[in-house]
Amino acid sequence: MKIIDAHLHIWNLEKVDYSWLTADLGVLYQNYELNAMPPLMAQAGVSKAILVQAANSIEETDFMLASAENSDFVSGVVGWLPLLNPDLTAKYLEKYKKISLFKGVRHLIHDEPNPYWVLQDTVIESLKLLADNGIPFDVVGVLSEHLACVKQLGEKIPHLYMMIDHLNHPRGMLSAQIMGKWEEGLREVTQNPKVYAKISGLGTAVSKKSAQLSQEDMKPAILKAIESFGADRCLVGGDYPVSLLAENYPTTWKFYQNIIDEMLSLAERESIYWENANKFYKLAV
After folding, report:
1. 40 within 8 A of 240, measured Cβ to Cβ
2. Ordered DSSP codes for 2-19
3. Could you give the CA distance from residue 219 to residue 260 in angstroms, rounded to a whole number?
4. Which of 202, 260, 258, 255 is nearest to 231 (CA)?
5. Does the reported pTM lie above 0.85?
6. What is the CA radius of gyration of the chain?
7. Count H helices, E strands: the chain?
8. Range 4-281 has CATH code 2.60.15.10
9. Please, what is the angle between helix 37-44 and helix 249-263, to 10°?
10. What mean pLDDT comes out for the span 114-140?
């Protein structure tokens, strides 16, 4: 079974500024680069990966692209563009469109004080540029408001493809009330066929001070995501190294595979593990 890790981070604290990455995060506060990944991926049965931004900067996008050029297992890079400035977005988009590894854009919207950040006129103008150029947008949300934004973006920019990273972090996985609200928001965005879901980051989807989630704790959210989006609109990502706050890389993948393999046919598993990432990000693998 071929597997693409649709959500892998790398960072170098000497080369790029990561405002959120501080010493209190323990194991995360060190460099993580591509040369450490091959043995971990081999243990997990993963053969390809997509790098995803972890800083709102051009510097980090360039760092990821430069790193990926020297790798034989990175199939694409989801970088960052200055969405608040449509003119600059257009300028950098022209540059990155010429780089075959540049496959998508993300902004750390979950760190913005305004949960409706993406609905600003300038951001919408920039996202229209992405849509016009066939570049998808990864949505890293944590609130029900973020899912509401996805619904509105779909109405304002019907040709924009969007990926719900980490299933919008269903942080209430152990709370029926919170999960009910999450499911409601999920159902609304599934009505847009251009919205996909990334099964990732679930091991750390509760407060870092809370108990870690087990495989059984994650199962209802994964089942609901696949039930809602279908096997043709779900992807899987390891979210390494952030996932180390819960489990190591091979164990993270073991959890996801145990759940997914139990419920899906071979053809459906091939879609989730490989084909959907190729389709959504227009990979050449």
Report:
1. yes
2. --EEEEE--B-TTTS--T
3. 9
4. 260
5. yes
6. 17
7. 10, 8
8. no
9. 30
10. 98
